Amino acid sequence: MEEEAKSLNFIEHIIEEDLKEGFSKEELRFRFPPEPNGYLHLGHASAICLNFGLGLRYDAPVNLRFDDTNPAAEEKEYVEAIKRDVAWMGFEWDKECYASDYFQQLYDWAIILIKKGKAYVDSQTAAEIAIQKETPTEAGKPSPYRDRSVEENLELLAAMKAGKFGEGEHVLRAKIDMASSNMLMRDPIMYRVLHRAHHRTNTDWCIYPMYDWTHGESDYIEQVSHSLCTLEFKMHRELYDWFLDQLVTSDRVRPKQREFARRNLSHTIVSKRKLLQLVEKGIVSGWDDPRMPTISGLRRRGYTPEAIRNFADTIGIAKRENVVDVSLLEFHIREHLNKIAPRVMGVLNPLKVTITNYPEGKEEWLETENNPGDEGAGVREVPFSRELYIEKEDFREEANRKFFRLKLGGEVRLKSGYIIKAENCIKDTDGNIIEVQCTYDPKSKSGSGTEESIRKVKGTLHWVSIKHALKGEVRLYDRLFKDETPDGHKEKDFMEFVNADSLTVITAFLEPSLKNAKIGDRFQFQRIGYFNVDVDSTDENLVFNKTVGLRDTWAKIQEKK
After folding, report:
1. CA angle, residues 308, 314, 315, in degrees to nearest 5
2. C-alpha 512: how far from its chain's center?
3. Which of 189, 321, 464, 486 could link 469 by a cystine bridge, Cβ 3.0 to 4.6 Å?
4. Spatial separation of the C-alpha atoms in residues 277 and 31, rounded to whole Å
5. What is the DSSP letter of 512?
6. 186, 192, 263, 272: the active-site residue
């Protein structure tokens, strides 16, 4: 029991205390409440894992609720993308809910607040309201419309609902405390006029409830027991509770808001508004661009739900914000793909190798393991011939003793193949090496059982047969931002830190087994990294995204700069 207690995060401790104090386990209910104004990103992934993880831990239902109260920014496209992402993450929701489901109920409750003298229609402009709120150290001034009669307030609210006023002419405000040190309690706005079509209610409504009025009441309607949100909403808790105080009855569950810290990721932006700017300005190809920190972008790049869930579990839930190095996320996808990804050979920067003593016209098929770490992965055959491609960086005309790849006079083993020795290199008129001529040891074939086949050489290279190679487009990705905290500079816009070299597109040469690869399939290109088949791929043009390298090279690159 002691070990189990240590594993609980502070949110789980709160729930455990509530249960000890008599809260019924059967009344536990959680929710994930995104606004459909963009695609979900890694910050949302942590919230998804928290809420749905609690549901699994306590065998409690979890609602997926869309906070759709701003028709100016929300779209059905985003709703569908969010549902797709949550399902892909491996979670099932109990009820699919929308704040817009409760528009009539919220309006009816607003009328009750007016009748209780707890709300009024304010006819000031937004600028005037901001001025009369004053500052946290100075008491605000009451609106000149604060003491309107109940009848006048009801009449004006009805006219607002009927579309008789333009945007900004009137708002409905809660009547709380203009002297409160919490600025959110200084008569917050509950409704504003918006003549915009809603993605679900179309033009049925032209007044829309504000977040603070909607959120707690939606939790109450759905009987959510624990409403979990990020620290930026901590100051909102007092208002959340005030609104509930006006409506909660003793026979219903009263939701409890609690806050956890947002986890920021290095070299990344996790603001939907700013991510939208990247899309609109063409910095990326869309919300699902593999460089984006969106769940759909990570999925397209080849990340797995398991890796993202493991990442979320590792960083955990805390009370203070911090920046998590993106290399931790890359560690988790690398770790998972190492277990599940078939091994293949592909050459990204080709250099021709001719084996001069290998018979012309001869070809053979060499057996190689699909995944040495998975006994059930089986084997495949790759074609071998006189002319091959290796990586340019795997050959040097001259090299020191620490270079264990191919050099003149030196030997290496070709993966699952033979030992070759570099005898000569051919250069073009500019002095660039364009071909290496080698000889091979016919008795050194891997797995043949001969003494030469087990002879040790220090280097093993991947390769492809030129005659059989497939051409494929490979997209190599770097950090989208050059700065660790692109959003953390007051004097500079985050766009100034965009990495212009975050995408490189090359033509690679691939072993022929990849001809049957399907969109979404993941592979380890041996000695290079993990790749997956992109949605742009066709039978005529294979397209691969580099998910992550075999090793974390980013830190080393930065050290050299």
Report:
1. 95
2. 32
3. 464
4. 29
5. G
6. 272
Q: How confident is the model at residue 554 (pLDDT cuts 50, 70, 90)?
A: very low
What pairing do the DSSP bridges indicate for beta strands 350-355 and 343-344?
unpaired
Instruction: Please report which helix (H) or strand (E) contains residue 380, including its range.
Output: strand 379-385
CA dihedral 522, 527, 528, 530 (to 10 degrees): 20
Helix (H, G, I), strand (E, B) or coil at 2: helix
Q: Band the pLDDT of 151: cuts 50, 70, 90.
A: very high
CB 421 within 8 A of CB 411: yes
Tell me which H or E stretch contains 330.
helix 326-340
Residue 437 CA to residue 259 CA, distance in Å, equals 65
Q: Concatenate the DSSP letters of all residues of 255-306 into one string.
A: PEEEEE--EEETT----HHHHHHHHHTTSSSSTT-TTS-BHHHHHHHT--HH
Catalytic residue among 35, 134, 369, 435: 35
DSSP state of 203: T
Least Cα distance to 41 among 224, 230, 240 occurs for: 230
What gap in Å lies between CA 307 and CA 532, rounded to an integer?
A: 15
End-to-end CA gap in the chain? 50
The DSSP element (H or E) to which 349 belongs, if any, is none
Token look-up 């006023």 returns: 165
List pLDDT tens digits, range 213-222: 999 999 999 9
Answer yes or no: 272 catalytic.
yes
Among 262, 415, 482, 527, the active-site one is 262
Average pLDDT over every residue of 12-20: 96
Distance CA 173, CA 129 (A): 10
Check: CB of residue 550 under 8 Å from CB of residue 528: yes
- State how far the alpha carbon of 255 is from the alpha carbons of 46, 185, 226, in Å: 21, 19, 6
Residue 263: closest CA among 42, 554, 444, 532 = 42
| 360 catalytically annotated | no
Does the annotation mark 258 as catalytic? no
Sheet containing 30-32, strands listed edge to edge, beginning at the edge strand earlier in sequence: 30-32, 62-66, 96-98
How far from chain centre, in Å, is Cα 132?
41
The b/e string for 372-385 (b: 16+ C-beta within 10 A; e otherwise) is: eeeeeeeebebbbb
The SS3 assignment for 132 reads helix
